[in-house]
């Protein structure tokens, strides 16, 4: 049975960077913005006392309905192996388009903070800003597909002109 993929999966350091994820949720709820995404985290509840196996099973369920994988990259993201690295591995394995969002404002790949597992993987790298995140969620899936068809990999970023067009 085919699964309909329309969700945005957001991975992040829940101890240090959850405020950025919460801000994305607030943008989504704000009627004065066009920012929207179908949040994969709405699919099922995870309890902090659940086993690693149970948590990964629930995360895998979320990933099955994912059309784009968003990774919030903060100061400690690259050091997280138990879940965040596993989530990245799953996105790569499933060929889910990856959007890397630099919480420090960098508009291209941050070679110091980006998890090494993404070094040669196809991904778009953007800054943490509502308009460019919305643009990437709306557009990267198509670009990712075109790049994959031609065998391209590696880090991509939007030119300054895209940011200017969005008023950034």
Describe it.
The protein is α/β, with parallel strands linked by helices and 168 residues long. The chain has one domain: Rossmann fold, CATH 3.40.50. The protein has five helices and five strands. It is globular.
Descriptive terms for the model:
5-stranded parallel sheet; 5 helices; Rossmann fold; 168 residues; alpha/beta
Give me the strand/helix succession: EHHEHEEHEH
What low-confidence regions span 5 or more consecutive residues with pLDDT below 50? none
Mean pLDDT reading: 87
Strand line-up in the sheet with most strands: 1-2-3-4-5
Helix content: 25-40%
Distance between the termini: 43 Å
The total count of helices amounts to: 5
| Count of discrete domains | 1
The second-level CATH architecture is 3-Layer(aba) Sandwich
What's the alpha carbon Rg, rounded to whole Å? 15 Å
The CATH top-level class label: Alpha Beta
Sum this structure up briefly.
The chain is an alpha/beta fold and 168 residues long. The protein contains 5 helices and 5 strands; from the N terminus they run βααβαββαβα.
Lay out the secondary structure.
Elements: E1 7-11, H1 18-29, H2 52-64, E2 66-73, H3 81-93, E3 98-102, E4 123-127, H4 130-149, E5 155-157, H5 160-165
Parallel strand pairs: 1-2, 2-3, 3-4, 4-5
Helix pairs in contact: 2-3
